[in-house]
Amino acid sequence: MSDAQLYEDTFTITTLLDQTYDRVARVMGTSADSTTSVTLDINSELYPLNTGENVNMLIATTLNLDGSSEDRAKTGWRPPKAGEQTLADLWDYVCYGKVYRHEETGEGVNIKVYVSFGGLLLCLDGPYRKLSPLRQDYVYLLLKK
User: Fold this and answer.
1) What is the distance between the alpha carbons of residues 87 and 127, in angstroms, rounded to a whole number?
2) From residue 70, how far is each of 1, 117, 133 by CA, in Å?
3) Quick one: DSSP state of residue 108?
4) Between 30 and 75, where is the model more confident?
5) Cβ atoms of 8 and 56 closer than 8 Å
6) Tens of pLDDT, residues 54-76
């Protein structure tokens, strides 16, 4: 499963902006080791967050527990069969989106990775060595408190 799990970290929410849109909040936070920052648009009605809370984040290429890849072109999206467990069952909030931009900063030491989840955006800014596995086309974002 480790190959399917591209990035995992715990963030402390430092800023919460929820005045712009109904049911959408932009949260900003820093990782436990203070090397990575996150800016994330989230459906605040489905998954409310507050300043000072810690949230675990996982970015993966598949929801299959065994790490096997998904062929969306052949199968499309489908709900799990009765009794079938996926990685989504272990997390509170799950999104599927497209990585649309990478931006090197700080003379190649840091990188910014941008992902769109149907209009809800994610930006991770941190060390190249931690975020370089995110050079993918499509990923899942999974969160839990």
Assistant:
1) 26
2) 13, 18, 18
3) T
4) 30
5) yes
6) 999 999 998 888 777 765 544 45
Helix residue ranges, H only, 56-140: 72-75, 128-131
Q: What residue ranges in the chain does DSSP mark as E strands?
A: 5-21, 24-31, 37-43, 54-60, 93-105, 110-117, 120-127, 138-144
List the structure tokens of 101: 């931009």
Residue 123 and residue 42 in contact, taking contact as beta carbons nearer than 8 Å:
no
Q: Which burial class, exposed, middle or buried, applies to 6 when counting CB atoms under 10 A from its CB (0-12, 13-18, 19+)? A: buried
Nearest to 113 by CA among 93, 133, 143: 133
CB-CB contact of 26 with 122 (8 Å): no
Say which residues have a Cβ less than 8 Å from residue 59's Cβ, sequence separation at least 6: 5, 6, 7, 8, 134, 139, 140, 141, 142
Tens of pLDDT, residue by residue over 89-98, are 899 999 999 9
Amino acid in the structure at residue 61: T
Domains and CATH numbers, the chain: 5-144 (2.40.50.140)
